[in-house]
Amino acid sequence: MTPSITQTSAPVADSHVSFYADDLTISFNQNPTQFTDPRTLMMKMTDHMLQANWNVKTGWSAPAIIPYAPLPLDPACSVLHYGTECFEGLKAWRNKKTGKVHIFRPDLNARRMNKSCDRIALPSFSDEEFVKLLLKFVQIEKRFLAWEGEVEMADEDDHDFLYLRPIMIGTTPQLGVATPSDAMFLIIASRIPAYNSKPLRLLASSPEQAVRAWPGGFGAAKVGGNYGPTMRPMSAAAKHGYDQILWLFDPERRLVTEAGAANFFVVWSTPAGKTEIVTAPLSNGTILDGVTRRSVLELARERLACESLEVIERDFGIDEVVKAHEEGRLIEAFACGTAFFVAPVAELGVDGRDIKVPLESNGKSKSYAQTIKKWLTEIFTGEVEHRWAAEIE
Ligand SMILES: *Cc1c(COP(=O)(O)O)cnc(C)c1O
């Protein structure tokens, strides 16, 4: 690569613009968790958290990595009354052979978190500084990720990962409904179990009774307020053996939006014999702009699209899916997101009956979901070099 020789003036760190990784202080946990294999620590939070505070007058404080601990919060603070909270979710992956740690496209999480913050009147920050801090935090916590250099790993063991959760909350203690003048940014991390990739059973919601998001609403923002109200319908669906709800929108058109807190794709052939990989569009604000969704679309367009296969973002109704199934044109369906990764869908509960979704295209060859999943795994575990994987030093 040719080094750039463009002269730019040194950036002035303005605390009203962002927190800055250069200002980071670290105070290590004096009582670190003892373990030999981090994989035995299921659902355990790591030993540290990253924190930066904001005030409308003074801007952002210097970020600090400090021992993980409960937060002292004023009972009158904004987040506890008006839900001024948003979050992100991403994974740090450790390659079991090389020990190298990568984060997948953290710049997209930074951008999305800024958008979510804006939607609920929380302050913004620099995407680059967010990524730098995230990498720094993972560097401190990477002993929570197993690899062969430190523990014995079997051939069939997967590469290990840690779940990262950036959060922002409004902390101003004031009972009036008002834009918070104080906020707190945090990054925490947890061991979570790998999703077992059992094919999913989804229950299509009844859009007269429950919708997840609506045009002009806030479904496109990763704000906490989107998730609490989905828990009752989700546990009702779970009682009937469904893993997630397939959220429909509009009683007439019954548009397919998302599967639980994951994006949804369907693959079918058209009556003319063309294959289409279809997902709902971002245009009306009811769909979360998933990093996995975006990556699936980009890889599919780059590596699968051809004259006979098209990758499409467009509105589609559940009745179109049912029709494709009835006419034997349904090829497969899958949900995707950081938590689930790419999970095949085996069944769709629609109007009281279960539609069986094929799990492998034409019997022998790998399904599209499997193929895309393999490509993505190669990228975020560093098996192949790719611009989407940010490496931790
Ligand atoms: C987080 C989330 C997704 C998945 O986004 P990724 O960036 O791929 O993890 C999809 N839908 C909803 C509603 C979500 O909250």
Task: Write up what this structure looks like.
With 393 residues, the protein is α+β, with helices and mostly antiparallel strands. It folds into two domains: 5-193, D-amino Acid Aminotransferase, Chain A, domain 1; 200-380, Alpha-Beta Barrel (D-amino Acid Aminotransferase, Chain A, domain 2), CATH 3.20.10.10. It contains seven helices and 19 strands. The strands form two sheets. Strands 1, 2, 3, 4, 5, 6, 7, 8, 9 and 19 form a ten-stranded mixed β-sheet that branches. Strand 16 (330-337) and strand 17 form a beta hairpin. The longest helix has 15 residues, at 127-141. The radius of gyration is 22 Å and the shape is globular. The model has no long low-confidence stretch (mean pLDDT 94). The site of pyridoxal-5'-phosphate (PLP) has 13 residues, from strand 13 and helix 5. Residues 89, 222, 258, 261-263, 288, 290-293, 337-338 line the site of pyridoxal-5'-phosphate (PLP). Pfam families: Aminotran_4. Its EC number is 2.6.1.42. GO terms for molecular function: transaminase activity. Keywords: Amino-acid biosynthesis, Aminotransferase, Branched-chain amino acid biosynthesis, Pyridoxal phosphate, Transferase. It catalyses: L-isoleucine + 2-oxoglutarate = (S)-3-methyl-2-oxopentanoate + L-glutamate; L-valine + 2-oxoglutarate = 3-methyl-2-oxobutanoate + L-glutamate; L-leucine + 2-oxoglutarate = 4-methyl-2-oxopentanoate + L-glutamate.
